[in-house]
């Protein structure tokens, strides 16, 4: 069934939202606020419907022609049809509405204007591609497990795109399809090396591994076939491929190293700005101060915190990341920093039981957030809590729990780590009442 409607806003997920004459909510991808569109229903749910765009009767000035030839089918991007300033505005509005739904008290002018990425395209230093049984290499189709074959990705750095082009041109997807389900390309920010990590469908004999590595295109600097799951081993001798990035944050220069099994922000330039923003909220603190860094990874925030004068305790469940955090601590010459490989919620419970206190807590959890364990943060009595989030919904939920524990939200800034997509990174500052 087709309908004509006006799109009212962009919602989480990047879809446009409108309403039918009977009040039924309808969600439509590839649309923008203010547009009059004809849509066709595709799915009916309790309380809302999904539809696909048939045609645009009245386009908004913010609409542009998507530059990617795969955009219509590929599930990687969902906002390329909007100008970049419009994307930033939509993300700010999505964050605002999400916080308001959680009944959070917001200071005047918050959320702040979204911090734009220095590179709206070509910013991804890590890219995962899928191989289907027919030998097509690409991304999953929108709302599907079907692979959309590509020859380049506008979000990836140019060195990564050169490798993708070489793999496709030499028919490597057809040669890899029986043995491998997916591959990752990592562009090392410090050295410009290109790392290829292959994920096998089944365990392969070592002779096959060696032959394959010798034959791959010379544009690839290092190749690894990943037989174990990331984060499952702390064995320092386990084969790993290293990457690194140099930083100049808050007047301190340093380098962070990690391997392919550790998390790092794929938008490396914007990661610099994210760290500057987060740590700038603590710049006026007298030193030394006790800081707890939860989900610390390989030290993305812990190391610059320590260089600022903090006595840092970093907590992270990924044992490989903790090994690299310790390595980065030593390389930075930090003595007043320690790292613990432990479940974050369990660590918080132990810290509360031992009546530990911190001057500030910084956390950068995965998409699911901290959850009910957020109620433990106020019990450690920090003056400030800096919450870095990649999901507005779980952020709003957790901020509600923290503010109920005696804290107020004083500042929140969306940071555009992933231009052309609906994903929203945010930095929130909470202060003790």
Describe the 3D structure.
The protein is an alpha/beta fold and 433 residues long. It has 3 domains: 2-63, Beta Barrel (OB fold (Dihydrolipoamide Acetyltransferase, E2P)), CATH 2.40.50; 89-119 and 245-432, Rossmann fold (3-Layer(aba) Sandwich), CATH 3.40.50.150; 126-225, Beta Barrel (OB fold (Dihydrolipoamide Acetyltransferase, E2P)), CATH 2.40.50.1070. It is built from 9 helices and 21 strands. The strands form 4 sheets. It has a 7-stranded mixed sheet, with helices on both faces. A 6-stranded mixed sheet has the order 1-5-6-4-3-2.
Average per-residue pLDDT, rounded, comes to: 94
Counting structural domains, the number is: 3
Question: Biggest β-sheet, characterized?
Answer: 7 strands, mixed
The order of strands across the largest sheet is 17-16-15-18-19-21-20
CATH homologous superfamily title of the largest domain: Vaccinia Virus protein VP39
Structural class: alpha/beta
Shape: globular
CATH architecture of the largest domain: 3-Layer(aba) Sandwich
Tell me the distance between the termini.
54 Å
- Which parts are unreliable, with pLDDT below 50 for 5 consecutive residues or more? 231-237
Looking at how many chains there are and whether they match, the oligomeric state comes to: single chain
Beta-strand residue percentage: 25-35%
**Computed CA radius of gyration, to the nearest angstrom:** 23 Å
């Amino acid at each position: 069934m087709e309908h004509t409607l006006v799109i009212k806003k962009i919602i989480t997920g990047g879809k446009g939202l409108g309403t039918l004459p009977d009040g039924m909510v309808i969600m439509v991808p590839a649309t923008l606020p203010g547009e009059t569109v004809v849509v066709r229903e595709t799915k009916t749910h309790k309380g809302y419907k999904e539809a696909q765009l048939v045609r645009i009767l009245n386009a908004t000035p913010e609409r542009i022609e998507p530059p990617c030839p795969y955009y219509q089918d590929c599930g990687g991007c969902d906002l390329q049809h909007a100008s970049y300033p419009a994307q930033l505005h939509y993300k700010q509005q999505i964050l605002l509405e999400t916080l308001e739904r959680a009944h959070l008290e917001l200071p005047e002018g918050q959320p702040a204007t979204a911090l734009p990425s220095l590179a709206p395209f070509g910013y991804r230093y890590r890219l995962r591609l899928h191989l289907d049984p027919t030998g097509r290499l690409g991304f999953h189709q929108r709302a599907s497990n079907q692979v959309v074959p590509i020859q380049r990705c506008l979000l990836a750095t140019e060195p990564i795109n050169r490798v993708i082009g070489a793999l496709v041109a030499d028919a490597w997807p057809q040669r890899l399809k029986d043995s491998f389900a997916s591959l990752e390309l990592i562009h090392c920010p410090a050295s410009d090396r290109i790392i290829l990590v292959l994920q096998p469908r089944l365990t392969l004999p070592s002779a096959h591994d060696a032959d394959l590595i010798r034959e791959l295109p010379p544009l690839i600097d290092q190749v690894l076939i990943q037989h174990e799951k990331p984060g499952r081993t702390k064995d320092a001798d386990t084969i790993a491929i290293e990457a690194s990035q140099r930083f100049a944050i808050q007047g301190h220069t340093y380098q962070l190293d990690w391997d392919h099994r550790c998390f790092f922000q794929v938008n490396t330039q914007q990661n610099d700005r994210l760290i500057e923003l987060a740590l700038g909220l603590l710049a006026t603190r007298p030193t030394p101060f006790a800081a707890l860094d939860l989900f610390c990874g390989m030290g993305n925030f812990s190391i610059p915190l320590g260089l600022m004068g903090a006595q840092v305790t970093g907590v992270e469940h990924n044992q490989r990341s903790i090994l690299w955090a310790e390595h980065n601590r030593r390389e930075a010459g930090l003595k007043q920093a320690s790292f613990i490989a432990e479940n974050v919620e369990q660590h918080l419970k132990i810290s509360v039981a031992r009546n530990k206190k911190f001057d500030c807590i910084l956390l950068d959890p995965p998409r699911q957030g901290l959850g009910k364990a957020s109620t433990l943060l106020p019990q450690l009595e920090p003056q400030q809590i800096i919450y870095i989030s990649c999901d507005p919904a779980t952020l709003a939920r957790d901020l509600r729990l923290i503010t109920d524990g005696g804290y107020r939200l004083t500042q929140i800034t969306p940071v555009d780590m992933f231009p052309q997509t609906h994903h929203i990174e945010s930095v929130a500052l909470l202060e003790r009442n």
